[in-house]
Amino acid sequence: MAKQKQTVKLKEPVRIRFKQLSNGNQSIYLDYYTGDVIRKENYVGGKRKYEFLKLYLIPERTREDKAKNEATLALAKAIQSKRIVEVQNDAHGFQNTNKSRVNLLDY
């Protein structure tokens, strides 16, 4: 028998995750992982941060439900890719032009 190829699991800094709700829907949220930090012999794990998107998948009973879920997932993936770019820009020292530095009192 031939060996099966192992699939490579990509380590993403931002992942889409789902939480099952009591009414049967699934809530979509983003899971940020800042990475591992290794110092000498001691292992210090990374930190996690969660961002709840207030997007929900509904049980698919009709074609409209399936189309709505596909659109919701596409929106979640777009938000995920935007957050990945923001995390990478912060890691390399680029400024985010979308975030305003306006003082609320001055406004």
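Next protein, fold it too.
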Amino acid sequence: MWPSLRRWWGVILILTAVSATVWLAATQQLVLYIHPRYVVFTVVMAAIALVLGVLSLAVRPMSTDEPETRRGWSRVVGGLALLVSGAVAISLVIVPPTTLSSATASQRDIVGSTVGSDSQNVDDVANADDELIASFTVVDWSSLLRQTSDPSFYTNKTADVVGFITASDDDPANIFYLSRFTVTCCAVDAQPTGVAVYAPDWANDFDVDEWVEITGSFEVNPSSRSDLPLVLVPETMTAVERPSEPYLY
């Protein structure tokens, strides 16, 4: 039984991983792990992996003889490999796909992030029309805030942004970061960015990691516990569903 299990295990794992990949792509959840431009490539490669796995099984020698001195260690190592690889493959199917959270954002330094540093230029935005301003994401506003903290620059510029809540370390009762991740290739290289939002007692109405849409303006930070020069002061703040593509690119 052991030789048979080892012979078929590779194909079982390939089938499991391929099935999980195709299912994630079909349900539009593969973008929780990789950049959308790689979805088609990933599905194609999964199909190729399936074909190669079946072919390797077909041409693999039936003999399972091995030296007696190596048989014991081979079984131990093989058993551990089966256990680990099986757990990884099965987790793709059992564990619900989800986005990166505020915990990851905090670990990757959302405050010092330089993500999207070239997404918007102060000179170009100074006299931008309302339509362009309305299209700005968290990444765009974060880029502008790194370039200038002059309150007059943000006069008559209304932000309308969507993101998830990450609590501030300096003044968590009154300030949180409206956060998003940007992805270049996959979730492993995801980098957080965000804008500070001043909303006293926000935790009474919203939870950490909850997705919200905020409309408001950037003003001088009224918090005495935070050294951020400007914060987004909401005019409206509404809980929303997580976007189908939660990462920015």
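About the second fold: The chain has a mean pLDDT of 79.
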